[in-house]
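A sample copied in:

***
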Amino acid sequence: MKRRVGNRLQLLTGIVLMMILLLFMDLLIFGLAVIRFHSVDYQNPPEILTHLSVNNGTYVLDEQEAERLLKHGQFAMILGKDGNILWSEALPEELRKLYLTRCRQVYQILS
C-alpha cells in the first residue's frame, strides 16, 4: 500500500515538474518570437542627417531615405530655434496641427 502511494506521488510530482518545464519553454519561445518579429528598426537621426541636403535654403531628403522612413512608419522633422517646423518628412497632418496649436498656446502664455 505504501509502495503504491509512493509511486503515485512520484508520478504526480513528475507530471507537475514536466508541466512547469513546458510552461517555461513556451514562455521562452514566445519571448524570442516577439523580439524577432516585432522589433522596430528605427532610423538613427545622424544617419538621416547624412542623407539630408540644403538647396537654396530648402531641405531635401534623398528618395531612398524618404522611402525607408515611410516603410517603417516613421517621420522626421527639423525645428528652428523659435520652435517652428523648418522641414519635415512624412509628418502626420494631425501631429502638425497639434504641434502648431501647442506652440501658439505657449507663445500666448509667454507674451
DSSP finds four helices and four strands in the chain. The longest strand covers residues 85-89.
